[in-house]
Amino acid sequence: MNTSNENSRGVRQHILCFGGGFNPPHLAHSWAMTAALAQKNFSHAIVLPCATPPHKKNLQAFHHRLEMARIHFRHFQNVIVSELESKLAPPSYTYNTMIALHEKYQGAKFSWLVGSDQAGNLDSWHRIDALQQLVDFIVIGRQGENTGNAEIVLPNISSTKIRDTLRAAEASAPTFYLDSKVRAYIQEHGLYT
Asked: Which fold has domain 14-189?
């Protein structure tokens, strides 16, 4: 992957970033990625599972969430699933991630997918004023919730609901919002039981 600030045609790279717990990744994550990639001419996208989030607790181990994200996004062209946040000092602040990405992809422009629930709390993000100088935000909303200024609105599917279904159901119960290979990984490793 070219890490210079221009692609082979001399055009400045515009990189889409998609961070999150991915606990587990599901179809709404795919739909968000697809919708965002269709909006703008991104050179590529980077999926960034959060290593040590400052606010979320009870996540599966990073290596499991990273592998599930790699499995889940395997069909996307020009999408990298990165372990970058596991290499940075905890906690995983988006600001620190963006500093590292700007160092790696010097001169590139960045956009970050963010849920409407998080977009309403951006003022509480670590170094938000400086962060907004490093990245533009693309807001994703969920049907049935206050979508505010969401550019993309998706069905109301959440990792929390999927985890609850996995915990409550027998191992053979269908979970329609999971990629079959992610579901197999979850079963193989006994996650969310």
From this structure: Rossmann fold (3.40.50)
